[in-house]
Amino acid sequence: MKKITQVMPFIGNEELALITESIEARWLTEGPNAAAFLEHIRDYTGCKYVVLAPNGTLGLHLALLALDLPAGSEIIIPSFTFFGSASSAVFANLVPVFVDVDPETFNIDPARLEQAITPNTRAIMPVHVYGHSANMDAVMDVAARHGLKVIEDAAQAYGVIYKGRHCGTIGDIGVISFFADKTITMGEGAVVMTNDEATYTRLRYLRNQGRENSGTFIHDALGMNYRITDIQAATGLAQARKFPAVEKHKQTIHALYRELLEGVGDLSFLRVEDGSNLIPFRFCLRTAHREGLAAALDAAGVQTRSFFYPMHRQPPLEKYHRATNDMAVSERLYEEGLLLPVHIEVSEEDVHYMCDVVRRFFDQA
Ligand SMILES: *Cc1c(COP(=O)(O)O)cnc(C)c1O
After folding, report:
1. What spacing in Å lies between the alpha carbon of 132 and ligand 1's midpoint?
2. CA proximity to 174, closest of 225, 126, 107, 109
3. Whose CA is nearest to atom 7 of ligand 1?
4. CA 177 to centroid of ligand 1, rounded, Å
């Protein structure tokens, strides 16, 4: 039977060649490939300052620490996101305040964002989910009017451009993840980006044991170890060079799904934010028959995933939920959302196969 997995990294000889270079140069910690990767990211995103982090969650943690907000400050986070957006805030001694998202773009709803501001609010964390941008004009406008910091969770947004600017470089600080299922990967890894020099200095001290450079035992500040290996950076560099092929493939596959599923059953789809491109993270669909459809796809050898389980319902985060913040959209998205794969090994034939399963399911229903 056919087997179509949800995720499949696009790795091969290009990665091996650069990893071998790291090993032959005997640079196991951040070395030449780390420097080359950072330069690539600065050139590609147009961001002035970029540092590496072990993964997206720790990247967000590092970024939040670098914002240097008073302990107990409130940070507004969409409920519809990955757990790491919220857990990093809690570990940075901040109080997450969850707000609902837009039913069509699945990203933070600017009107609800503004309603959730209190005298304790210090920051907003827009999340760019599923490969397109949040409404950053609106987010930046609210932030400016209320004097709030903006930290962008751009974990899924490598290659996503909003009105000419790369996601993660629009607010005060931003994070892109390179986990195995992200657009490009290092296995584990992330970058933290800022255009502010003082923030960059804090990031450097925080990530490297509170000192400017390694090789000294005098530590000017408190810091931790958020460094990575040159082998991870080598993988990231090879991946970044392959990104144009990834982008083209994902967009072709996504467009084909969209065409084949138009008007089928009760399906509805993501609406891409105005001013943003789409680097499809998955193919997202909504249906009132999610469980039945997922079972039909599973029986046909297709691995699906649900959408995010909302943050305000997560057992360790429920206590941050404000009953006055209506979460109807996040809850419905969880109940109705289904993700189909768009990775490099999904062929056009595979998309026809999966869409046939979907069509047959609704014909029989
Ligand atoms: C993947 C992801 C993260 C966390 O990144 P990791 O590298 O897996 O730690 C955070 N936020 C969002 C929206 C993500 O998709």
Report:
1. 15
2. 126
3. 56
4. 6
Per-residue pLDDT of the chain (365 residues; tens, 9 = 90+): 899 999 999 999 999 999 999 999 998 999 999 999 999 999 999 999 999 999 999 999 999 999 999 999 999 999 999 999 999 999 999 999 999 999 999 999 999 999 999 999 999 999 999 999 999 999 999 999 999 999 999 999 999 999 999 999 999 999 999 999 999 999 999 999 999 999 999 999 999 999 988 888 999 999 999 999 999 999 999 999 999 999 999 999 999 999 999 999 999 999 999 999 999 999 999 999 999 999 999 999 999 999 999 999 999 999 999 999 999 999 999 999 999 999 999 999 999 999 999 999 999 97
Among 319, 262, 234, 178, smallest CA distance to 22 is for 234
Q: Indicate the pTM of the whole model.
A: 0.98
Q: Which of 79, 152, 177, 333 to mutate to test the pocket of ligand 1 (most atoms within 8 A of CB)?
A: 177
210: left (phi over 0), alpha (psi -120 to 50) or beta: left
β-bridge partners, 316: none
